[in-house]
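[job 4417] fold queue: 2 targets
>>> target A
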Amino acid sequence: MIRNGLYLAETTFLDGVDAYNRHVMVLRDGTMRGGDGYYYTVGSYTCSGGKWKGEMISREHSPIDGMYPWARKEISIGFTGTYSDDSAEFDATALAGKRSFRFQSIYRLLSAD
């Protein structure tokens, strides 16, 4: 199982999208909650044998700087990846309006419950 706790999440967008994000996420018993200065995220996951998958929704709580194509849009995200005792990572596809984006995230455990 993925350890319950507070994680630092670092996200790198792929396919030529020039964006990077650092935020916090709380993983607890199959639920995800977190965010940064512009977005909050809620979701759920399942995990077993070092693999995990899930889905999330991100919504803007404060106007985002710049002209990102996902600004002022709800973002639906599906992901699959792997985890260890103190970290997790995944590849994801995000849908914002009619446009999709691929990204990779690495989660590092900051504080276990």
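>>> target B
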Amino acid sequence: MTKYLINMNVPLDTNHQNANIKANILSDDEMRELGFTDFAKDTWYFSRRVGGENSDISLNITIFKRTGNIRIDVLDEMFLQPYDFQMYIGKNEIANRVYDDVQSYMKYFMDKGVISGYTLGDYI
């Protein structure tokens, strides 16, 4: 059960997200190779389903090209609203699977150099 504890002791930015998380924009080819798109020319955007193959939950990462600011959203696509999986960690299986998938993506992007300043298990 301790696997699903969230470190809530992180500074928050004006969007109530972990202020420690920073984006590092790689070359256009590298960003596309990692699954980001830039159909909106001023942003890099990444979106994947999380929480299992039949899940309606998505992880969405937006990186603004001009400023390098990052926004990370986990959304319930069925109800068109944020899904606060961190509030339900350890309480239901869906939130636990979403947590596992989000942590996996965060680690992947840290390993690839797109995200820095994040520690696995921290509040996003």
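[job 4417] complete. Note on B: The chain has a mean pLDDT of 94.
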